[in-house]
Amino acid sequence: MKIATLVTNTDFSAFALARPMDDTAFANLINEVRPDWDVTAFWVCKGEFPADISKFDGVMITGSPSSVTENEPWMLRLETLIRQIIAQKTPLFGACFGHQIIAKALRAPIVRNPDGWAHGRIEMHRVAKTNWSGENETIYLYGSHIEQVGALPDGAQCIFEGAGCPIAGFAIGNHVFTVQHHPEMTHEFVTDLVEEYASYLGEDVTNKARLSLQAGSADRLVFANEIAAFFENGMR
Q1: Would you state the pLDDT for residue 234?
Q2: Residue 187: which residues within 8 A CB-CB, separation 6 or more?
Q3: Which pLDDT band holds residue 235 (cuts at 50, 70, 90)?
Q4: 229, 34 in Cβ contact below 8 A?
Q5: Per residue, what are the HEC states of 2-15?
Q6: Using CA atoms, how far apart are residues 107 and 105, in angstroms rounded to an integer?
Q7: What is the CATH number of the domain that holds 170?
Q8: What is the pLDDT, as a whole number, of residue 236?
Q9: Exposed/middle/buried for residue 71 (C-beta within 10 Å: 0-12, 13-18, 19+)
Q10: How many C-beta neighbours within 10 Å does residue 235 have?
């Protein structure tokens, strides 16, 4: 399969540059479970868009520290592309910012998490099965967000929920799949991230994140297999 990764991550700090960027992180995630798939990145946050998205079997949209509510020109262009991808029913997966901008492109609201920052290792529960769902009813992923999808887009079904986040993931038919959290993040990366953000997010949020990481690792490969199964299902 040929998968396009639309990179939205605008963090080019020394911290970010010292670690695998999202082009590599998402390719690694997929290639760990489907090593023969071709994953090509486009830095849409820099204005680099695919010339013909229809040449790809599936599309992924990454996370970002930017807010989808900023309505930057590249974000608005991405929203137009999202609607095109959905109209042609090319399988589309979005994580965090990707989850939110897919919802926003379909006119769903983006709101602040009433519980504040979700940070570290985050528990979510499966509330509906899809054709590509795995067996796990509870899934842990790494994440860091304070904004989230406030209502489902028209025609969407909620498939995951979590504390303070009633729409932690949704699906539309067999061609849209989203999650609020970060399946591409490794334990090492998020451990470093928690310390990097400690002074910004404060003691309470940081200590809660540290404890969550001490409790165990995320279900990274479990979720990677669900993403791969989603793309395979969408091609049937």
Answers
A1: 83
A2: 142, 213, 217, 218
A3: confident
A4: no
A5: EEEEECCCCCCCHH
A6: 5
A7: 3.40.50.880
A8: 58
A9: exposed
A10: 11
User: pLDDT per residue over 166-182, tens digit each?
Assistant: 999 999 999 999 999 99
Main-chain dihedrals φ then ψ at residue 15, nearest 5 degrees: -60, -50
pLDDT exceeds 90 at position 94 = yes
In the DSSP assignment, the letter for residue 165 is E
Q: What is the residue range of 146's domain? A: 2-234
Read off the pLDDT of residues 175-221 as tens digits, 9 standing for 90 and up: 999 999 999 999 999 999 999 999 999 999 999 999 999 999 999 99
Are 221 and 124 in contact by the 8 Å Cβ rule? The answer is: no
If DSSP codes are grouped into helix, strand and coil, which group holds residue 178? strand
- Give the type of residue at 90: T
Ordered strands of the 38-42 beta sheet: 38-42, 2-6, 58-61, 92-95, 176-179, 165-172, 157-162, 118-126, 138-145
Question: In the chain, how many domains are there?
Answer: 1
| Nearest to 216, CA basis, from 143, 142, 144, 159 | 142
pLDDT at residue 204 in the model: 96
Q: Is the pLDDT of residue 95 over 90?
A: yes
**Pair of tokens at residue 113:** 């998490």
Query: Cα separation of 157 and 200, whole Å?
Result: 35
Residue among 85, 119, 139 nearest 213 (CA): 119
